[in-house]
Design brief:
The protein is α+β, with helices and mostly antiparallel strands. Helix content is 34%, strand content 24%. Helix 3 (95-102) runs parallel beside helix 6 and helix 5 packs antiparallel against helix 6.
């Protein structure tokens, strides 16, 4: 695929700084769900996992390192040039899931053979709740499903926003408030 170029301004959403892709840029991506891109933001190289906003577009959280390196500020336009990538990075496994995997050799064995993208799906499904009780149940279910050979979570809409801190009913909060 060719390079997707656009300009957009970082937004503050709760305690997060995010960058939303224009719908026209997201439309050029191979998936309405999570997507991986590589490219530059204000000339700074980066590999970024894009999250769906629940309305057909994408966004990502800007960490402080990228924010500083690219000289970005909320409200100031950033120049972005990205292209889809197929080399998914390993996701950071949270401590509670890591503990469960360490205590279940059969589930961990399958976890180690699935693709990084499949691991990202499991993590998105597990964290898509603000309830610690529900999260704990999802980890238990994940262990059971992995033991049974399931390579991805079942019945999971990959096109929804799954970050409970910035979404409501599967839609990025800001996107729900300003969607055109």
């Amino acid at each position: 695929m060719s390079t997707i170029r656009f300009e957009t301004a970082p937004l503050q959403l709760g305690g997060w700084t995010i960058l939303r892709l224009p719908k026209s840029a997201s439309a050029k991506l191979p998936s309405r769900g999570q997507a991986l891109v590589e490219g530059t933001i204000n000339g700074v190289r980066s590999k970024i996992v894009l999250e769906p906003d629940g309305q057909g577009s994408h966004w990502f959280r800007i960490d402080s390192g990228l924010l500083e390196a690219a000289g970005m500020e909320a409200g100031k336009t950033a120049a972005v040039a990205v292209a889809p990538s197929k080399e998914w990075p390993e996701p950071e496994v949270p401590a509670d899931l890591n503990k469960a995997l360490a205590s279940d050799p059969q589930a961990k064995a399958l976890w180690m053979t699935i693709t990084p993208m499949a691991r990202w799906d499991w993590l998105r499904w597990i964290r898509a709740t603000s309830s610690q009780e529900t999260r704990g149940r999802r980890i238990q279910v994940a262990m059971s499903k992995l033991r049974a050979g399931a390579r991805r979570p079942c019945c999971f809409n990959r096109n929804l926003c799954t970050e409970p801190e910035v979404s409501k009913n599967g839609v990025l909060i800001e996107a729900a408030q300003t969607a055109k």
